[in-house]
# Entry
Amino acid sequence: MPQCGFSNNVVQILNTLGVPYETVNVLDDYEIRQGIKEYSNWPTIPQVYINGEFVGGSDILIELYQSGDLQQMVEVALAS
# Structure
């Protein structure tokens, strides 16, 4: 279960799309939480990756979902 509203937004979007996804509770491990921020060069959590490529955080995912672009990205990823 997401522990913040931003993460909850992302989970709800992915559930609505009906796509498989994995989550990691970064609150359990400070090193993972900091490491993912450095890896992506993105300062906030949650972070969404599709096929290993960083897409963005909650706000970007909401925009992509509303425009229909996220559905297309997911379909391409699932087809590959």
Notes: The chain has a mean pLDDT of 94. Strands lie at 48-50, 53-56. The radius of gyration is 12 Å.
